[in-house]
User: What shape does this take?
Amino acid sequence: MAELKAEHDAEIEELRKEMQKKGLDIPKKRLLIDTSVLRGIFDDDTPERKACTERFLDVCQTGIYELFICPEFEEETKNATAEQRKHMDELIKELSIKVLPEDNEATNLAREYKGKPLRTAKGDRLHLAYATVFECDTVVSWNMHDIVNEATYNGTREINIKAGRKTITVETPAMMMGEGRPEWLPPTTP
Assistant: This one.
């Protein structure tokens, strides 16, 4: 499955290049990367997760996606070691990850998510809200308890549709690479 996803992504990138040669542009898929993804490279207790994170970040390095993190990243990484923080900062630079600016609309939307069927902490709701307000396609996270689950997907979708906002998907790096995609999540598109 992962090989098919990789082939599909390569075909899309080739099409994108051909379209650009003709003066046309296919927008890149916009991903909001939550803190757990960048911390995944330090996950020595779960070698599979660490390896998958590294593969996912390698794919991101090709420039196939437009990457973002929300301002909550600073708060969520304040307890990281100096070495971890340095490595994450290097990754942010290498992958051209854009740090989204503080935004009242996103903060208010995170509050709106709180009372709904979302079992998410404030920081998690902020990731979802920033992704929505800044029109990202997907929140990528290893946090399956609070972010990457059917209740969060359906809850944010319902709230966003009622408000006329763009809907977002929630996926792990493994799901982004075509591994272990749950039935409740719609098929991925480049």
The mean pLDDT is 84.
